[in-house]
Each structure stands twice: as C-alpha cells, then as structure tokens.
C-alpha cells in the first residue's frame, strides 16, 4: 500500500519537512490535542496519583503476564468467547482469514485497530478475496486513498478537507463540496449499507479484563458498536499486553485514556463485551472470537527497561507532545506506530537493523515521558536501544541483525575515549578548543559549515570551569587555614 | 503449527522470558491503593445533586437532558422531543416504561425494536437506561435488562429514560454495579453512552452523527416507583 519504511526515515522526514500542507496540519492538530489534554487533566486533582496507579497496574500485570492471560482465557471461554493464539503476524492473518472464510464472508467491516495494521490484515483478506471495509471515518478516507495512517488517534491528520472532498468525488461520486458535514453524511450512508450486509466484524481491543473475560473498546463515532453488534461473527485482535486484572482497574484506565488521547473526560462510547448472544437473546453476534497476538512482544518481557514498552495504552499523547513528531508527522517513521512510542516499539518488533534510525529521531527532551498516562520512561528506552545498536547487542524481540559501524568511526571513538579519560589530556583539549573558538575566523576551518553558517557559537569564557573550581578550592583552603 | 501449538508456544515464550526477569528482579510492589476511587472527582451524595451534575456534564458534550418530576411530565417531555425533532417513526425497546410512555404519544408511528429493517428506517429510538453516571454524564445500557443495543444506535435520534435514583456517582461505582458482585457473570454487552456520535477526522472539525445517533436526549425521572 505504501512505500514508507523505517529504513528510509531520513529521506521521509526530509520530505515531510518540505510539505507545508502537512506541517500546518500537524501544527494545528498537535497544538489542539496538547491544549485539550492539559484542560482535561486539570479537572482531575489526583492526576499524578492516577498515572502512578496506571503504571503500577501495568507493571504488575506484565510481570505475571502468563497468569493473567490464562485467567483471561478461561473466563472468556466460560462466557462463550472463542480464544485463539497467534505467534506472529502471518499466523494471526491466517487465523482471521480462515474464520472469515468459514463464516462465508465476502465483505468484512473493520473498526480502527493498530494491531490489524501491524499484521497487515487487509492485504491478507484481499488475497483471500474478502473485501475489508474500514469504518472509522479517518481510516475509511485513507483506505479510499490507498494510504496508511499517520496518527494513532486521527489517521487522516495529513489530509486537508479539500483533498478529502476531491477523493470522495473521484471514488464515490459525491458532488464537490467544502462542507465536512456533507462529507461525513456521505460516509455514513455508504458505510451503513456495509454494516448491514457484512457477515463478519473485525475490531481491536483496548483492554482485556482477566477477572471477567471481557474486552473493552473505546470510540466516538459508533462504528465499533456497529462492527461488534450487527454482523453475525465478531473477531477481535489483541496484543497479549492488553490484559488488565480487574474491572476496578478498568476505571483507572478509563479515566486516563480519553483525557490523554483526545482531551475528553470520556469518549462517547465504551463497549464492554463478554460473549456472544445467548439463548433468548435477539441482539449481538452469534460468535465472538478473540485472537491473542505475540509477534515479538513476549521477548520484551525479559528486561525491565524493555518490558515497559508493553504498558502503552495507545493514547497518542507522546506523539502530540514530541517536537520531532510535530515537525515530521507519522509517515516519516515508516511504521504503524509513529512518534516516540513508535520509535521504541518498532525496532523491537521489526528488528533493529530495519529501524535503526528511529531511536535517534528524538532530542531526548522528555516531553513524551511527562505526558505518558502510564509513565513509560521513553527516553530511557531510546537510550537503551541506541546503546544496543551501538554495541551491536541484540534488541530483545528482534533479530540480532545490526551491522557494525565502519572501522574508522569505531577507532576514532576509541581514541577519543582514551584521550578524555586522563585529566591532563582533557584539560589540553579544552584549552585548544577555547583557543580556536575565541578566534571566530578559525571556526570556518571546522568541517561544520552547515551548522555554523546559520548559528553563532557562544564564545567560551577565558577561564574554564575547571580552573575556576581549582581556584575556589584553593581559596577555601586559605580561609580555613 | 497447530492452533494448540501456537498457544503453547506463546505461553511458553512468555514464561521463559519472565523466568529471566523473575530470577533477576524483585517483584513490583503490590499496590496498597484500591484502584477504585483514584481520580474520582468530588461528587454530590444526594439524588438531586447527582441528577444536576449528570445533566451539566452530558450537556457539555452535546446531549440534551430534561429532569421531570413524574411520569406525566415525562410523557409531555417525550412528546415535545418527538414533535420538535419531526420524528415520524419511533422504535422502542422492550422496557416497560418506554412501552407505557410511547402508548401516550400522538402523531408518530411506533415500531418494535425486533426488526433490523424497521430500526434502520426509524428516525427515533426510545429505550430505558439501567444506570447513569454523575461523574461523566454517561448512560449505562446493560443487555441483561433490556433489548436496546440497536435501538440506541441505529435511529437518528436516541431518547433514553433514566430514573434519578439510578444515577450513580463515579465511573468506578458504575463498573462495580455492572459486575454486580459476580465478575464471572457479566451481561454479554454493556454499553456506556456519553453524548451523540461524533468525529473530528476531517481537519479536526467536530461533526456529530457520523455512525450512531445525531442527537441524544435523556429524560430523567425523579418519581420514586413502588
């Protein structure tokens, strides 16, 4: 569907930086979501305690994930939900295609799910001649355009109203309009008929509750309710990290997620689903299936630092807060998961070689950690992954496929490390640097023209900090004496 | 690999990696805090106060709430909604109160909620609601009590009848009430509704009524029923 890949990050980021339409859309969206989030959390006096609670719940559940998954599975089965497991993307796709095919499906309706994007489910369905229809308005727009999402919460954030109107005229024959109400009404009409005729509905799951065997889905549009209520068969795809222990814990996450994602105190709809229709029921699907997906997640459990990647509840707050995402948007990352959380998840899911540039797509400013509703230390993870890449040590969950840095670079860093490990050598190099930098004309000799052409380096003080420190220690000794 | 093989493989991988973690780390501190009340705002503890809070929160996200003292006033409020919104065909759930009130309406066709086609052609849907939530201005619809999964979703306007005494305080209380003391026997579908269906997917401009109802009306009944 798209040529975006993490390997081409630099080129894609550069393209994005030259796309004025995209950048103005990003400025608006990230600014608006940031402001709304601030206003929404201001009404919760215990916001920090709530985040801490969210972090603790996730930390506990991930440390005993096998137990909670088994509990979830047995409770879900008891309620009549069919539970399946998939080791990787291919297995998940095969399973879901089989389920859809045995339900006789020609068309499936889908509600927005990052996990189905991760496994490239639509392509697999199409290969089996089953037509997947995305029903979230933003997802439907990008499906019509043959593109991929660029934001976790607002998939079509990169498209203007004029572009969408043109697309609707071309693909579904809507008369040209500049009214978003008319565009929405057009989508409503077309998608209604899909909901009614589809045999299978496919969704993700925001939370799987172990003590009840239920799944919970949050949304604003109502397409998830349609997808999970109208077709005869409902299939939900969930990463193994989506399980939480109790229904009380759900209250914590329902207070955290919408405020962090869209700045709402609660999204319009939550669907708590605990099974198919039972005898005497006249509503709801006859079959409910849940597919639990590993696809590289289990290996992240091994170490504390990587395990926290699995605490993510996919709110998108770190995207909106990130100064890098704000400039380049989601496509540049070349991954289903963009932004700071994408920069740490993608190398672990796809391999460090494929995504070796992503952990560097950050200034380590820490804005992502500040806004994360479950307090994931994303900068720590970015540094950890950078060090794995530099040391060529394996990234958990990913093949050990990192190429060595070129030998002159390695040799250079070794010499540098040796040189600066002695105080005399360090002092000598800072004296030289000071001497050079106090003579502005000498700067032009340095091979950093692109940097110095538009910036003035600060002129260093005539005496270094180390010299001043030495003097002050000497002075103190004199005073004591 | 067989399906059962996939299960064993995934669980086996999880156990193997966690074994390394368990050997090298002390288990995370089990929390002393009860999940329930964290982040719950200060809420009124009387019925009237909760109804007022419910109304103001739901109206802040575009819902319409009418608080009425009794059944007669509820019928008048319902007729007013039907007339002003130009509802010609109203689908009703199997809730007793909804059935009673619908019987008193004039100039509107009443249809049952059992036919999907009838629902798709209805411009109004009338249901009860099992609980309300003062904290979030939400309705809680439980499939064990009423057949309202589609009547609250497909028609253009959804009207819900809610007893003031059923308005709970916090989201956490509502979830506990849903679990009903037996978390292993939840109703198969519980839906929380807070306002009309909405989207901001086109240039972040809010549009209501994308897939679900374009309007949500709640009639809150203060009358205590025997």
Q: Could you explain the architecture of this structure?
A:
The complex is a heterodimer of chains A (481) and B (226). Chain A is an alpha/beta fold and 481 residues long. Chain A has 3 domains: 1-43 and 315-404, no CATH class; 48-295, Rossmann fold; 416-480, no CATH class. Chain A has helices at 9-17, 20-42, 47-63, 65-78, 89-102, 114-118, 121-127, 137-145, 161-172, 180-197, 223-229, 247-261, 304-307, 317-321, 323-328, 339-350, 367-371, 378-391, 407-420, 423-437, 440-443, 449-452, 465-480, and strands at residues 82-86, 107-110, 131-134, 200-203, 207-209, 214-219, 233-239, 243-244, 269-273, 287-293. In chain A, the strands form 2 sheets. Chain A has a 6-stranded parallel β-sheet, with helices on both faces. A 4-stranded mixed β-sheet of chain A has the order 8-5-6-9. In chain A, α3 (47-63) packs across α12 (247-261) and α16 (339-350) packs parallel to α18 (378-391). The model of chain A has no long low-confidence stretch (mean pLDDT 91). Chain B is an alpha/beta fold and 226 residues long. Chain B has one domain: Rossmann fold (3-Layer(aba) Sandwich). Helices cover 32% and strands 23% of the residues of chain B. Chain B has helices at 3-24, 47-60, 71-84, 96-103, 116-120, 171-179, and strands spanning 64-68, 89-92, 109-112, 124-128, 131-133, 138-142, 157-163, 167-168, 189-193, 198-199, 207-208, 215-221. In chain B, the strands form 3 sheets. Chain B has a 6-stranded parallel β-sheet with strand order 1-12-7-4-2-3, sandwiched between helices. Chain B has a 4-stranded mixed β-sheet with strand order 8-5-6-9. In chain B, a hairpin with a 4-residue loop joins β5 and β6. The termini of chain B are far apart. The mean pLDDT of chain B is 93. The chains are: A alpha/beta (481), B alpha/beta (226).
